[in-house]
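Quick question about two entries, pasted in order.
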Amino acid sequence: MKISTAIVTSLALLIGSTSAVPIVKKDDIDLTILQFALTLEHLENAFYKKAIAMMPESDFIAAGFTDDYYSRGLKYIVHDEEDHVRLLTAAITKAGGQPVQACTYEFPFNDVKSFASLSAILEGVGSSAYLGGAPLITSKAYLSVAGSILVTEALHNAIARSAINEIVPGTPYGTALTPNPVFTLAAAFIKSCPSSNQALPFKAYPALNTAQGLPAAPGMPFQFMVTEALPSSFFVTFIGGMDITSVTPTIASAYNFFATAPQNYGGQAYVLVTSTDLTGGPIDDSKILFGPAIVEFTPDAPTFDPNYIK
């Protein structure tokens, strides 16, 4: 792939909404965007490289995965992630910056099945990050390039979800995620980074965890836990597809609470603790207190009208 000047702006998709993001000088924003993108691509590249170094194809076959998944899916995903790192590194250098280096990571998988589950989650987050940044794109040419990258992320996600027998189109629409939640999810896997790496103007929120087994059914109660004291009043905000729904929790203690999942959610979704009701959106990062937690919903059986042809 040739390095295009369009890559600088197209990768703004990884940033998402500017809400609650510290202001960066216009002259510096392109490099900041590229550095953030490279930070995420380093993480994905390291994740997949660890997996293929640790587990040969025979391990995948023994765990019940097909040869097609490994040779015609996973290996191509690994190739793509490495190519993204090479592309971004060259683009940052060409723009006069010092590319951030890979960090030291800790990925919580120890076998094929736990790797495959985490792969589906990470690819879902990647797709959400690109989609969440689409409103930043003003150039039609740049938006076209960005859409091309988003398609690749979605293809990776489809491969990963199919491999673990999740319904691939869990929702009719993609789920957008704003920048600080993306940064929060990435930071959970990073142990340390080189001191020479450029500091990025994003923040990680306190963790939000759930005790609910996944996948879950819409409309069922979830238990959530935090490690910092909750405020006396807050909302639990679910994000899935084009739906954003805030619900009132049942507080059990200063560190855990229950919330009932909305109906009609399917596939990978995100849960935030927010200071205000954000139902209907948009997500304002300045209102986020904890999260996101990642949840998986088994969608309802599909319905359609065979006579609806207009």
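Here is the second entry:
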Amino acid sequence: MLKILTALSLVAVPPQADLALPEPTGPLPVGTTDLHLVDESRPDPWNPEADRRELMVTLWYPARRDSGERARYLSPQESAAVLAPYRDVPPDALTRVRTHAGRGAAVRAGRHPLVVLSPGFTFPRATLTSLGEDLASRGYLVAAVEHTYESVATTFPDGRTTSCLACVPGQDGAVVAAGRAADVSFVLDELTAARWGRSVDRSRIAVAGHSMGGNSAAAVLAKDRRIKAGANLDGTFIPPVERLDRPFLLIGSPRTHAWDGSDDSWKKSWAHLKGPKKWITIAGTDHSAFVDYAVLRPPLGIPAQELDGARALRITRDHLAAFLDRHLRGRKTPVPAYPEVVDQGRKAAAFSSAH
């Protein structure tokens, strides 16, 4: 949460502030479960005392029926770590976020396209819940990966809670992205085998991420041919993309990721995205408006984006789902003509034609 956890003046927050995520928009009920995966083939890149890489993964999937308790958003330890900079916000506030997936609900029969989600640096995987639940309600199996020691806190099934060992000044984003690419490939190995293998369509896999997770999406696409499409939500490319030959979606805030925005890594990468591609910005957004913080910050008194949070998420979810539908399913899913959306790809094409 490098972009939002800053020294801000906050208003007092009611102890029981209403913290609800927007409902999924698809027709299917959603189930969820958490997986504890262990990669015995490699040591942890951040913890020198760990000779294996442990990961927590949250799955959302189309369920047979709407059943099971609603899933918990964050553990008390995770919530306290996220909210530590905000003295006026109850440390357990994020344990009360209302989600929409039934824990342990039976998965819908058949093989489903798989989307792997990667969160921003220091962001818990839970911040991708709105995206995950929505895609699952549209028929996707979704896996959000917690990149251990890169989140402010990660709670494991045995009660351990790890901190962000990777959070050091001058951390190399390219090194982080390379490690995340290895995490995602391992998760794909696990999900396409054993229990979940019967529910995954191996020919239809995509990866999407927010911030560092979006940068990592490009890194894993470059390494793993199983992945057919990718998406970057407001993440700087470190370094700029040299070549990608599969479909790629860019969604960002205009301040940083418009054609003339402050981050030129998308501009430098655009010509090197050789597959089908799309680049849009959403007016009134900031860096965290593409994930759950869009709707969770206002009721907690944390300054947020100008655009209504639910609308920011709706636009993001609609464009992401339509892109995945087109390139994983061969479907043309209509998207409303949101006035906040600007097609930066057209600006890029016009610039190239003029030069």
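Reply: Residues 1-12 have pLDDT under 50 and may be disordered. The radius of gyration is 19 Å. Hope that helps.
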